[in-house]
Amino acid sequence: xxxxxxxxxxxxxxxxxIYMDLKDIIREHALQYLPAKSLLRFxxxxxxxxxxxxxxxxxxxxxLSCRSISGMFCxxxxxxxxxxxxxxxxxxxxxxxxxxxxxxxxxxSSSNGLLCCQSCSxxxxxxxxxxxxxxxxWKKLPKPNVNHGSDPAIVLVFEPSxxxxxxxxxxxxxxxxxxxxxxxxxxxxxxKEGSWKTSGEICFASRTLVPRSGVQMNNIVYWKMKQxxxxxxxxxxxxxxxxxxxxxxxxxxxxxxxxxxxxxxNGNKITLCLLANVHSNTMQISxxxxxxxxxxxVVLDCGILGRDAIGDRSMATVLACGDVLVVESQNSIYSxxxxxxxxxxxxxxxxxxxxxxxxxxxxxxxx
Length: 367
Fold this sequence. Notes:
Helix content: 10-25%
Structural class: mainly beta
Number of strands: 23
Radius of gyration: 25 Å
Strand order of the largest sheet: 3-4-5-6
Largest sheet: 4 strands, antiparallel
Distance between the termini: 77 Å
Domain F-box: 27-56
CATH class: Mainly Beta
Strand content: 35-45%
InterPro entries: Beta-prop_At3g26010-like, F-box-assoc_interact_dom, F-box-like_dom_sf, F-box_dom, SCF_F-box_component
Pfam family, one: F-box
Protein name: F-box protein
Domain F-box protein At3g26010-like beta-propeller: 105-285
Number of helices: 6
CATH topology: Neuraminidase
Shape: globular
Oligomer: single chain
Order of helices and strands: HHHHEEEEEEEEEEEEEEEEEEHHEEEEE
């Protein structure tokens, strides 16, 4: 009856790899977090990496994963733009002058790798362009139905979405109303619709916007006003409001990790204020809700600034984005990293003129 126990046999594929090779892990899970300049260089590592980096799906994932500011464009009126990288080895653009666009342009705004530019030619229409300076793709937008003015307060909004494979973006321009005195209206361009539409919202306020001061986060756009405070426009609710603000002629607005930031310089110190509650203006008088979070003071490295810059009363904060602050003092541009606490001299410029700075994310997103 008992024929004995048969030996137990284990079935399994021989030489089967349980773990992924390191090169496969890097290719599938790490490359998408790198800035564009590094990716373009890494295409020469091997054929698999080149194929991976060249696919539209990878470009989409990289635009989702690589969101840190990697540099900035600086432009003097009447001159082509310059680009300054915060890490020249990993971040950069092949043509900072944007000569791939068919006419000279001035940079108005940026958002997650895309730039909004406007023609600066003396004759003809001041056309808007959307471009990616890495891929050198560009698109000319249709002419707006209303007059935006000679120096439009326009903001580009591009938020990469996991579920949306195409790069959908919007342009929002706040312009003086032609029908009402002391009023501001809003013109919105949607890449989905391919057209401009003037919002029904009108802000009745005797205020003047600071051109190219606009920033956006979470589908809300903020502009600085010359009389103090901020104009706010909510793209989802299609509503606007005026906020009290920390205002300084040596300051700027920015997006600090999803919160509106007001930063202004005083000597070698920078004072930061973060927006805490956008609804505090409408709360009852006895409410203790505060509009701005407590101030944070950042002290720049005096050894990097030099003796003359320390006492420079004209030192101005020109950029505040992510974890980076940028200041201008005596024709020198310095950056400060809030994480590493490091002060770096980015460049020295020849003359003291009005310059405008635009943050940039090194992305390979396709338009």
